[in-house]
Amino acid sequence: MVPYDDADARKLMDEVQQEYVRRYGEPDISPMDPAEFAPPRGLFLVGYEDGTPVATGAWRAHDGPPPALLPGDAELKRMYVARTARGRGYARAVLAELERTAAEAGRLRAVLETGTEQPEAIALYRSSGYRDMQKYGLYKDDERSLCLAKSLVD
């Protein structure tokens, strides 16, 4: 766990923004307040390989607005694995830790917005039990947007 503005977190977030530019032609402009990712209502993770930051992911508490977002939601953000570290299970490990910590913090459901130009991410989420949900957020009217959710309780 690191603060949102940690140097390693910033490095990886800059890389993911470049990935968005490559895939969509522009960076993600979703509002991101660093305070939202501080415990107990959020968390920011960086994964390392031999001391090098290679993976990131975060969650922040959301409690609406309905009907898409519900009380007890944890929105996943900034899931990313550096190109040189892909295919080694880092994304799945970060996702599992985000789900675990969100559930531990009392969050009931994990939600996320991804895009059709990220088939690897979609495959990860679907294979981890995420299902389609009503679109929400800044990109809800974008045909390339896809929103997914997974219950964090049995």
UniProtKB/TrEMBL annotation:
Pfam families: Acetyltransf_1. InterPro entries: Acyl_CoA_acyltransferase, Bact_Acetyltransf, GNAT_dom. One of its GO terms (molecular function) is acyltransferase activity, transferring groups other than amino-acyl groups. Keywords: Acyltransferase, Transferase. It comes from the Bacteria. Residues 1-153 form the N-acetyltransferase domain. Coiled coil: none annotated. Transmembrane segments: none annotated. The keyword Acyltransferase applies. The keyword Chloroplast does not apply. This is Acetyltransferase (GNAT) family protein.
